[in-house]
């Protein structure tokens, strides 16, 4: 099929304004032909491209139709009228999108894009925890496989973990898999948290001493993700989810800021805060970096790799995610 391609040089230049602080124009121009091809394929396939906050700028600002955290992207997939969803993220994100949009084709350009945190726990591990703690509800972070979600009662994000856990009205709760997020929740609630010892390979590399020295030497406003260690959290000015960090930046409007999270997050949000200087003592997620413009183009051309969730797992996993939405609706009522 021949598709009229209306991605023009003028549109390319307009999008460059979003990344002009991050790369020279000559580097942006290198991506023109690839972005133009992807835009044409999106129209041909009736496809939407979703990009996580940790994606590289040429994806986040170049071809993404929706940007955000993993749950925002999954909900966008469910609401979209597109037939095809390209998830520019990691495997568990594509699975979650498929759970909420089972009738759509969900593509992950590189199925090796995994997650050390999601890989830290299995469905069998959750079953073992539930045997050890009979009758205790299990809450799983969204950064888990569909198989793990299927063994839990309700899902949560870093933004609503505390609210979800307290909404259950229980004296104790199993919380998997991130031990640092579990520690953050435990410090803010009277609910006894039964954690798992999972960690994110990106966030655990930061140290409290590093953050203290960075604040001393730069005077920057420090925002840390709760997947960082308690020592890093204590050294930060703000601790919260990726969406929470953006809201905190919008409120504080600091002259200098440091985002203690994946590198690309600072690159991508800097476009929205032109008066803030973003310092970057950050770490790259090797899994997020596996997603590239050529990979996106190839996925749209072939309509693969397509993500499927096994029929034996999907209903319970979907119910786990939907229960989170139900709990949040009750809290908002």
Overview of the molecule:
The protein is of the alpha/beta class. Helix 12 links the parallel strand 9 and strand 10. It is 44% helix and 14% strand. The strands form 3 sheets. The protein has a 4-stranded parallel beta sheet, sandwiched between helices. The protein has 3 domains: 121 residues, NadA-like (Rossmann fold, 3-Layer(aba) Sandwich); 105 residues, 3-Layer(aba) Sandwich (Rossmann fold), CATH 3.40.50; 77 residues, Rossmann fold (3-Layer(aba) Sandwich). The protein contains 16 helices and 12 strands. It starts with 8 loop residues before the first helix and ends with a helix. The longest helix is centred in the C-terminal third of the chain and has 19 residues.
List the helices and strands and how they pair.
Layout (H helix, E strand, L loop, with lengths): L8 H11 L5 H6 L1 H14 L1 E6 L4 H4 L5 E3 L1 H10 L4 E5 L2 H10 L4 E3 L15 H10 L5 E4 L4 H4 L4 E3 L4 H7 L4 E5 L2 H8 L5 E4 L12 H11 L2 E4 L5 H6 L2 E2 L2 H11 L3 E5 L2 H7 L7 E3 L13 H10 L11 H19 L1
